[in-house]
């Protein structure tokens, strides 16, 4: 039979954990795996501004006709405003083109296809550690994946020297993948001065930078979190961005992402964009309407946008509060080691330093689900589960 030689693939390290959690029967169970925001009640709520926009959309929608290959124009235009800032020269000169994509992952896959099949890129440089799907996406299109050092495990900080040493080996025309903010999984980002240095290095060495920008607003604010990207734009005329609204709009299941190409001029941007559209046509033809039209409605309406920003600020504040509480409680419950480094991390993840064996014990003995790298979703902590979590962690340390 045809399928007899097919072997089963191990479950996805992140999404597979969600499936295992669903099947978990113990009553006191905690899911800190997949990077999804949860409120103080442990729910992943629909943002109120989104709900309001959905109501308006429901009333005004008159057709379910196909979208264009690159999706909703207003959504793409609003995406550029968030990425570059309103009034940025790139917007005025039209030298960036955005295509709505199936989440940030879809944008990354389009980027990988463009790099491999249209630009003949040989290597992509990826931070070590990184989101596991980065490796898989680039391997899937046949680009060589190279690692650059990112994290100093003993001191729990950015391995700046290692990073610079490794990135000095990047060849002209290689893609360098950067996490725009809230590095996944470490939560550690370069400082503004370090971003400036990397931006200069990139321009001097001729890298093609690719920003994975999935957490804008979860670090320090919408504008603050775009520092990395805008610093690169000062030095680099060409750049790729895979962005996502899954987290900051809480629209995980609507698959709302975008792939943006910044080129030297409008003509070049249009030519590259035509290639992007030909890639999308063969991958999934055209994207879905609901999520993108909802987001476009929020972002072009000043009141709804302001309301969304308030809600985003609240999400960020809650994550920061839980981060502080987590560290304080670990100390109070008797953790011998120092976890203060967690306070300075950005975004929803805490790279805890827990070993795979400790993570396994947390799952097997306490029904606490964490990614085996030791990455904990801080947003999954609530006042109801944090005591149990910290007591359990102290037991496995
Ligand atoms: C995560 O890292 O948990 C999220 O980006 C969700 C995913 O697709 O892995």
From TrEMBL:
Keyword Coiled coil carried by entry: yes
InterPro entries cross-referenced by the UniProt entry? Aminotransferase_I/II_large, Asp_trans, NHTrfase_class1_PyrdxlP-BS, PyrdxlP-dep_Trfase, PyrdxlP-dep_Trfase_major, PyrdxlP-dep_Trfase_small
SUPFAM superfamilies documented for this protein: PLP-dependent transferases
Judged by the first EC level, this protein's enzyme class is: transferase
Q: Which cofactor does it need?
A: pyridoxal 5'-phosphate
Species annotation: Neisseria iguanae
Residue ranges spanning the membrane: these are none
What family is this protein classified in? Belongs to the class-I pyridoxal-phosphate-dependent aminotransferase family.
Q: Which EC numbers characterise this protein's activity in its record?
A: 2.6.1.-
Give yes or no: UniProt keyword NAD. Answer: no
Residue stretches in coiled coil: 305-332
Which molecular-function annotations from GO does this UniProt entry contain? identical protein binding; L-tyrosine-2-oxoglutarate transaminase activity; pyridoxal phosphate binding
**Full protein name:** Aminotransferase
For this record, the Gene Ontology CC terms, alphabetical, are: cytosol
Q: What GO terms describe the biological role, i.e. biological process, of this protein?
A: L-phenylalanine biosynthetic process from chorismate via phenylpyruvate
Subunit comment:
Homodimer.
